[in-house]
Amino acid sequence: MYAFSYVNPVKIIFGKNSISKIAREINKTDKILLTYGGGSIKSNGVYDQVQTALTGYQVVEFGGIEANPTYETLMQAVDLARREKVQFLLAVGGGSVVDGTKFIAAAVDYKENDPWKLLESRARFSKALPIGAILTLPATGSEMNGYAVVSRKSTQQKLAFGGPLLYPRFSVLDPETTFTLPLRQLQNGIVDTFIHVMEQYLTYPLHAPLQERQAEAILLTLVEETQAMLAIPANFDARADLMWCATNALNGWIANGVPQDWTTHAIGHEITALYGLDHAQTLALVLPAVWRHLFDQKQEKLAHYGRRVWGLQGSDPAVLAHQAIAKTEEFFQSLGVATRLSGYGLNGNHFATIASRFVESGTGIGEKQNVFKSDIMKILELCL
Ligand code: NZQ
Ligand code: ZN
User: Fold this and answer.
1) What pLDDT digit, counting tens, does each position of 227-245 carry?
2) Can you give the CATH number for the domain in which 321 is found?
3) Domain harbouring 49, CATH code
4) Domain stop point among 177, 202, 231
5) How far is the CA of 132 from the centre of ligand 1 (A)?
6) pLDDT in tens, 249-297
7) Does the beta carbon of 141 sit less than 6 angstroms from any atom of ligand 1?
8) I need a surface site. Which of 173, 288, 329, 344 has the fewest CB within 10 A?
9) Confidence band (pLDDT; 50, 70, 90) for 315?
């Protein structure tokens, strides 16, 4: 196990009717900016619950944060927050709303330059408004981490940034809020969670049995509870388990002391930026391709994963590793998520642009930092 330090300051408030508890977490005198997306919270009753919980508070609203939140939209919220001098940001929605709100939090006081620099050159920032989150879509883990991903329409970029100031002060996870999710978003959330685990697990063997089993516990629970939820969509317990899996997959816990990959996410973000596919849809295409391209490097861990998670048996690691890849693709396909770009009727017309966004030499990406522009091109071709 490698050396690590770990802190996660997010207070999780989990369970039915938890939204009513937020008033205890926000100063009565704080002026709040309530942020949300395209309106799902208004049709499923979450907005009303938030209104009731915030009785007596001064609240300004900013709706319309889109999936894959854009700099263009978020800067309007930054202007509003500055004008209204808000003191607390309350994000209500999926990962896009939480991420967008993190950007607003950092951008409001970042006046020395264009806040896009926070993403483009990972500019340091020393202040951010406090954030609370009410999560309605289990997927990204944004509710319990300090990262955010923001897109820019004008340049077709999608970039991540983060920092200790971006952890929400609290996050409310009420599984009942997920009952109105369309099937596509449920599928996306399961795939995203699965692949977050993979980015921190499917690297190379290292003696870290606890983290390894924690990662496997998330994967096994995810597979089991997905079946339970799909069989009976109104199954509260399954939804609660899936929600908690998503949070645990990216709150830093399973990353402690182990190598991390993130190649799939890096390529996936570019595919969303250029093709417009959902985040999880891109990941389901790229992950098997990364594994095939880096087969020798990942073979041993793939075989281990196949045994532990899919119950595969046999002694030839190469055979087991191929079977593990096939099992993973079958799982995504069983959820209705395609594992090839052709499944969306798309072709390789943007591959050269995507590859050009990665370095040719020096420090590459992946657990061995050995994935370069030429590898990206080969991985993309395996996605076709
Ligand atoms: O906008 P509204 O009307 O709210 O509708 C949303 C949106 O259309 C809808 N939705 C959310 N909760 C709902 C609901 N519809 C009905 N009932 C509910 N309870 O779902 C749609 C998708 O929402 P979105 O927030 O975009 O999805 P998700 O949570 O998957 O977030 C994706 C974004 O997070 C980023 C992705 O790149 C992408 O931009 N990520 C953030 C990460 C992080 N901060 O750590 C890590 C991830 O790897 C990921 O990159
Ligand atoms: Zn993700």
Assistant:
1) 999 999 999 999 999 999 9
2) 1.20.1090.10
3) 3.40.50.1970
4) 177
5) 16
6) 999 999 999 999 999 999 999 999 999 999 999 999 999 999 999 999 9
7) yes
8) 344
9) very high
| DSSP conformational letter for 143 | G
Contact assessment for residue 81 and residue 123, using Cβ atoms and an 8 Å cutoff:
no
pLDDT of amino acid 324? 98
Render pLDDT for 242-262 as a digit per residue (tens, 0 to 9): 999 999 999 999 999 999 999
Token representation of residue 105: 């939090």
Q: For residue 191, which ligand has an atom nearest its CA? A: 2
Range of the domain at 281: 183-381
- The interaxial angle of helices 183-201 and 209-231, nearest 10 deg, is 170
Distance CA 338, CA 142 (A): 24
Residue 112, pLDDT above cutoff 90: no
- How many CB atoms neighbour CB 29 within 10 A? 9
Ligand lying nearest the CA atom of residue 283: 2
Minimum CA distance residue for ligand 1 atom 22: 67
If you search the block for the tokens 């030839």, which residue do you land on? 316
Atom number, ligand 1, closest to the C-alpha of residue 283: 48
State both tokens at 65.
């944060």
d(CA 96, CA 221): 25
pLDDT tier for residue 62 given thresholds of 50, 70 and 90: very high
CA of 248 relative to ligand 2 center, distance in Å: 13
Q: Are 159 and 272 in contact, with CB atoms under 8 Å apart?
A: no
Q: Is 83 domain-assigned?
A: yes
> What is the mean predicted confidence (pLDDT) over 10-20?
98
